[in-house]
Amino acid sequence: MTKQTAGIHHITAFVRNPQQTVDFYAGVLGLRLIKQTINFDAPEVYHLYLGNELGSPGTIITFFPWAHSRKGRIGGGQVGYTTYVVPGGTLDFWAERLAKFQIPFTETVRFGETYLQFEDKDGLQLEIVAREEGPQSQWTFGGVPADKAIKGFGGAILYSTAPNQTGHLLEHVMGLTKVGQEGAYARYRATGDLGNVIDLNVTPMGYGIGGAGTVHHIAWRAIDDADHALWRSHVEQNGFHPTPIVDRQYFNAIYFREEGGILFEIATDPPGFARDEEPEHLGEQLMLPSWFEPKRDEIVQNLEPFEVRVLKEDQ
């Protein structure tokens, strides 16, 4: 069986504080909070989703904010950098914006592209690159106009403890194409126009430690439920051990850990985030799956309130 994913569906990370996280990703980076719900496996913790105007696959970063989370250490078996892509010619705007918010950044070049690399408040490693490909975001917030807004993911840098095996998986199981190697990284490309460029370390790295400021998992796209079932069989036939299909309300998911230690998910594009909220009101209230509704009052009491707000630097 030959399969090819279009690229990244979403990336999920650990953080400590919901207000701080929303201020950074909505207030500074201009993303839209498209869903506030809970971690279905730990309902005392939010699950926050931010992306473009509709939370399209390839744009969604999600967070588990837990105040008591230990500080993580980024290393092997994790996403090292989450890459955001902005329209061509807008990198100067983003450099000026980071400086306005006093966010330190460095400029680096990889595979002929210039990246701005920086960290969020928990130490999650991020970078911004400008490319022409991929649809423009229609969302504007604070000081970020739509024509300069983040389109979604450019891709990611993966940190592997066994890069040869991870590279083989990317190419021969996930269906990415190896397009080159430069210095410390090999580059792979998926078929989509967002979340499609993956750089992988070529030298094995020591294991990181999960916790605040680290990525929990990276999720790849499946077209629909039928395609998802084929992906599960495909992954299993290639010697991995995927979980049963899990209903995540806004997509279905399977999970497996690859040989370099990175937790992979494969998630369906549908049904999407408008299944329980109107598109113009996404993210405005806490949404719970039906089995948690009877405990809504108890759940809300255990969650720290937050708001999406324009920050003082943009007022």
Automatic annotation (TrEMBL):
Domain VOC as annotated: residue spans: 7-131, 152-269
Transmembrane stretches, start-end: none
Signal peptide location: none
Top-level taxon of the source organism: Bacteria
Keywords: Dioxygenase, Oxidoreductase
Classification via InterPro entries: Extradiol_RC_dioxygenase (IPR052537), Glyas_Bleomycin-R_OHBP_Dase (IPR029068), Glyas_Fos-R_dOase_dom (IPR004360), VOC_core (IPR037523)
PROSITE patterns in the cross-refs: VOC
One Pfam assignment: Glyoxalase
Keyword flag rRNA-binding: no
CDD domains in the cross-refs: PcpA_C_like (cd08347), PcpA_N_like (cd08346)
GO MF annotation: an example: dioxygenase activity
Name of the protein this chain belongs to: Ring-cleaving dioxygenase
